[in-house]
Amino acid sequence: MTAVHRGHVSRLTRRIVMRANGVGLSVRRLLLAVAAVASLGGLMDAALVAPASAQSFTYNPLPPRPKPPRAANDNQMLVQATEVDYDYNNSRVSAVGNVQLFYNGTSVEADRVIYDQKTKRLHAEGNIRMTDADGKITYAEILDLSDDYRDGFVDSLRVDTADQTRMAASRADRSSGNYTVFENGVYTACAPCKDDPKKPPLWQVKGARIIHDQQEKMLYFETAQLEFFGVPLAYLPYFSTPDPTVKRKTGFLVPAFTSNTPFGYGVDIPFYWAIAPDMDLTFSPRITSRQGVLFQTEFRQRLMDGAYQIRVYGIDQLDPSALAGQPGDRQFRGAVDTKGQFALNDKWVWGWDGVVMSDYYFFSDYRLAQYRDPLGSFLYLPTDALSQLYLTGVGNRSFFDARTMYWLSFSGFQNQVPVVYPVIDYSNVLNYPVFGGEFSYKTNFVNLSRDSAVFDPITTLANTNSLCTTTSADPLARTPSQCLLRGFPGTYTRLTAEAQWRKSFTDPLGQIWTPFASLRADAINADVSNQPGVSNYLATGDTQAFRLMPTVGLEYRYPFINVQPWGSTTIEPIAQIIIRPNETYAGKLPNEDAQSMVFDTSNLFSVDKFSGYDRVEGGGRANVGVQATTQFDRGGAVKTLFGQSYQLFGMNSYAVQDTINTGLDSGLDKPRSDYVASAAYSPNSTYTFSVRSRMDEQTWNVQRFEAEGRANFNRWSVSMMYGNYAAQPELGYLTRREGILTSGSLKVAANWVVSGSARWDLEANKINQYVVGAGYVDDCFVLAANYVTSYSYSAGSTPPVLSHAFMFQIGLRTLATSSGSSSSAGLQ
Questions:
Q1: Cα 795 from Cα 409, distance rounded (Å)
Q2: DSSP sequence for 596-608
Q3: Where in this chain does the record put each LptD C-terminal domain (predicted)?
């Protein structure tokens, strides 16, 4: 572009394409200098900002701006203004009136922009708005910078970032090309009030001065205060934090507070060390009032194909007597745990979890968060910590998983916990038909060992293990109704392979026929140690067995559909006939993975109703039932299922006693099973109701009943589940069990929620667990408090332990989250 004379080029809006030469160079410097303001706005990802003397943060959004026009190439700049002047005498370039500059994805708008070539300073004023390529918007009234961006100031600065954080300052001064000082700054991560944008946000941080050191990439705050709804609640005379360009920075993190009887009160003071871009270390000593300092260190590293971490704990207890008679009654206590996972390619991953502790109650006593109650409460209930090494692969229609596992028992009886050296699963469904049907196969291999037998007395006569461990020569030898052997001592190896085929077709009448066939083979080796009482359950010594189970069957369905103006109903009789030989070695081999047996409509039509591989169903069986589904045109559905199972011929596997009486008292342990029924009703998305039941096939007495209802409205939700279970003396449940589990939440205000839950044992007429909590949650703030009470039961005559836990949590988005917890336990 050639230079023009002093004065107005035109009173009309002009668009001028400028290259980096002549006047274009000056305007380019003008734009780049304005872009330097982005470095001021870039600080908004940082934490605390704002002064005691600053006004409350307000937000007054401007109308949406048009998209910038496209330049011919990235080196071109577009300038649009009502007037563009060049003053030869004073060497000034001015753009006046609705000035818009576009360059490399950045746009600048102002009422007036002047660049002085003599002083090499840029001056912009009036409704300045700059939008960078990342979506960050910077507002100002006056901007004055040198063209090398080393010195200058901005008046009435306001910045809105893409991650919904906002900052304002009365003035920002830049010096030495490195330091920027914000005067009377205000920072918040909360959105402005829609009804009243001038209303203070939920929280904001003010600071008299905020200093940004670009070389150190640090923010330093002087005389800061934290406000909620415009009311100051906390004052900090001085603190510092990394600027938002730093994702990881060495320094102290937010402390956490906790308490528990064994160690008293404690405060964690974590220090974070960013060792390198791919690794870090967090050192978090906990200073306790009773036991001294608990050292905690966590090392993490991310590699090209995965990541791993290692945690180390240790404490030299000052008062071990506080844990007298307990596993923690020792001077030194500690632990190491680690985990990692790595990808071999897009289908295969391998990894590990590992835990080693000085004693099995260490994590529980010191309330270490990674081993909290798996239900999410903060009771830190003792559970088993798992160490494992695994390899997993997932294909389009196949799955492979191999792992070795070691459970660290929190019960203290480590010799009764098995070590699984490997357990390997593989399954595959062929993606092409075989004889017109679907063909699949699966395999399972397991090898495990246990040092000591696990006996479980199931009658009041067998209230100690002494009766369970008697030998068969003893006159009080164990009988099936006195004890269970939940885990045998010795080594167990099993290889299972199964192939399945099925095909469905529909005849002209609409009947659906599904023939199926399977062949399963098990090779088993059991080396059972001859410990006291074990021979009453299993043959001791080395036992080899080969088990073959061929199965053929046919499933029949005949859906009847009735269509009405209000909806449609489908009634579908279902029948299954399964033919196979008897289960060989029934009850004579260890049962480690098929100990659970619940018969209901969910497994009525399962070919094998055992939960694992160690038992296999045999004999001829018929499963029959009727299913009805109603769909309403205006929404909602009702689904019901009722049925029964029949042992047609051969031995009933569920009536055969094994080491833990699997199948007994299940409703399947007789020629005609108990009746099972279920119903589910969802009138709309608000309500759901479901009922599941098992009734005695002769008396129709309820053996198992569950009813559940849920309602979910805009402001509140509630759920209730009622359970009633008959006595199962063969499994150790000598009396009927009955209880109610309820939970609910109420949205008392826009972001305030109150919730609670309770579990009521109707037989004992006692509420044995309840949780009460309240919290505030929105896009910038979290405040929550929970109180949990629960009974922990143990075997024998030991009374239940009542545990109490309280947790408080507060979080400010982009700043920090802090929490505290307190718990106690006592006998009831």
A1: 16
A2: ----SGGGTT-S-
A3: 332-752
Rounded CA separation 140/444 (Å): 69
Cβ-contact 514, 498 below 8 angstroms: no
Question: How much is the pLDDT for 794?
Answer: 42
Q: Is the dihedral of CA 32, 34, 38, 40 positive or negative?
A: positive
| Res. 637 pLDDT band, cuts 50 70 90 | very high
CB count within 10 Å of CB 184 equals 19
Task: Write down the residue that tokens 């692969």 correspond to.
Answer: 393
Amino acid (1-letter code) at residue 187: Y
- Amino acid letter for position 335: A
What distance in Å separates the CA atoms of residue 766 and residue 774, rounded to the nearest whole number?
24
3-state secondary structure of 701: coil
∠ CA 641-643-649 to the nearest 5 degrees? 155
217 and 88 fall within a common domain: yes
**What is the C-alpha separation between 140 and 33, in angstroms, rounded?**
14
pLDDT tens digits, 325-348: 888 889 999 999 999 999 999 999
What digits encode the pLDDT tens for the residues 184-209? 878 777 877 777 777 788 788 887 88
The answer on pLDDT for 181 being more than 70 is: yes
Tell me the CATH number at 211. 2.60.450.10
- For residues 799 and 793, give the distance between their C-alpha atoms in angstroms, rounded to a whole number: 7
Domain boundary residue, one of 381, 413, 430: 381
Rounded Cα distance, 327 and 332, in Å? 12
Domain co-membership, 183 together with 233 = yes
Cα distance between residue 742 and residue 333, in whole Å: 40
> Could you give the count of Cα atoms lying within 13 Å of 301 in the half-sphere of its Cβ?
6
Say whether both 130 and 217 belong to one domain.
yes
The number of distinct structural domains making up the chain is 3
Q: Which amino acid is at 467?
A: L
Give the integer Cα–Cα distance in Å for 466 and 755. 47
Task: Indicate if 242 and 101 belong to the same structural domain.
Answer: yes
Q: How far apart are CA 113 and CA 104, in angstroms?
A: 19
Q: What is the DSSP letter of 364?
A: H
- Pair of tokens at residue 576: 């299954």
Determine the 3-state secondary structure of 46 from DSSP.
Answer: coil
Together in a domain, 117 and 226: yes
State the SS3 of 372-435: CCCCCCCCCCCCCEEEEEEEEEECCCEEEEEEEEEEECCCCCHHHCCEEEEEEEEEEECCCCEC
Tokens of 736: 């009927």
Task: With respect to residue 187, please indicate whether it lies within any of the assigned structural domains.
Answer: yes
223 belongs to a structural domain? yes
For residue 30, give the 3-state DSSP assignment: helix
Domain membership of residue 114 as a residue range: 78-252
pTM of the model: 0.75
The full length of the chain comes to 828
Q: Are residues 213 and 92 in the same domain?
A: yes
- Same domain? 270 vs 167: no
Sign of the alpha-carbon dihedral angle for 313, 314, 319, 324: positive
Q: How far is CA 177 from CA 150, 166, 180, 189, 640, in A?
A: 4, 24, 8, 28, 75
Bridge partners (DSSP) of residue 816 are 812
Spatial neighbors of 258 by CB under 8 A, at least 6 apart, are: 265, 266, 267, 268, 286, 367, 820, 821, 822
Read off the amino acid at residue 276: A
**277 belongs to a structural domain:** yes
Last residue of a domain, one of 381, 401, 417: 381
Q: 49 in a domain, yes or no?
A: no
What is the spatial distance between Cα 139 and Cα 235, in angstroms, rounded to a whole number? 28
Place of tokens 């401007």: 62
> What pLDDT is recorded for position 214?
73
d(CA 497, CA 614): 12
Tokens of 493: 């190896």
List of residues 6+ apart from 9 with CB closer than 8 A: 83, 84, 85
Assess whether 132 and 177 both reside in one domain.
yes
